[in-house]
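A student in our group prepared the protein record below, which I am reviewing. This is what I was given:
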Amino acid sequence: MYSDGDTFDVESIRNDFPILHQQVNGKDLVWFDNAATTQKPKQVIDAISHYYEHDNSNIHRAAHTLAARSTDAYEGAREKVQRFIHASSTNEIIFVRGTTEGINLVSQTYGRKFLQPGDEIIISTLDHHANIVPWQQIAKERGAHLRAIPINDRGEVILEEYERLLNTRTKIVSIGHVNNTFGTISPVKTMIDMAKRYGARVLLDGAQSIAHTPVDVQALDVDFFVFSGHKIYAPNGIGVVYGKKELLDILPPWQNGGNMIKDVTIEETVFNDPPAKFEAGTPSIADAVGLGAALDYVSRIGLINIEKYEHYLTEYAREALSKIQACALLVTPETASAWFPSNFPVSRLPKWASSWTEKASP
């Protein structure tokens, strides 16, 4: 049992990850590099192996049994993504290779259709290069201006400066949900609402939030949400773009080829409806299946349980590191302390946290 809402069996979860069953430099492997990529549980590895051993086929274009099973598995993964981020329809879920490709898809389709000379794009100085370079390049191409929200010495966006940047020329705001270096959780709902007052569209980079905190794209009222599967225990090479249906319907295709068309003649092409319109060629079917298995895995454990446990570990590590004279903490954003403030009494921790404290206390 992984979690019943009051327990969090760390050893059982650790045992699910085959790569952790090894030693490096004579020590049991502990993986701290999850912000770069996550390791894969056996449930995901098995799902990919089962697909290749039993169902492997191209999709959407044949009537034989394996094609039907492969198509069902691929579209079943799309349904799992829809439920996981609370989109209103599977037609709003586009499979891509990852967050970087997702942001490029939006910048190229939305940017080329709507950006005019003098328009403005807002990002933040907290953002990953993947959320800077695509907007920088489309701004140059379209004659638009790229603006960046400054941050304070705690690694947090300065909302007053953000509000000063917003104006009627702002066409899109593209911001990270959680920073990959500092772990800063930006107040994205507030920022989305502020952008909407000026009629701007908003893209939310969820690469670092998808595995750590629940996301409800409808409650956020975000126009686009992108994330990578490999950040949430799924394979490399698979990612997601969520887009509001009314936007996807009017955006042009990004790439062209098979699967994304209704009809083709030498003279003319009729494009498919979303999401197929944005998925040219043979997709990474097995990786999509692996993503679906990863979302099932996280859902069984409970994303809230994961989030609470991670925040407790963060506070524990921060307190321990602060006692080391030679160690300087560069930033300590308050938003990272949402679950357990530093003065939270151990007696009030959930059972899983208090039992871990007993094992981990020096």
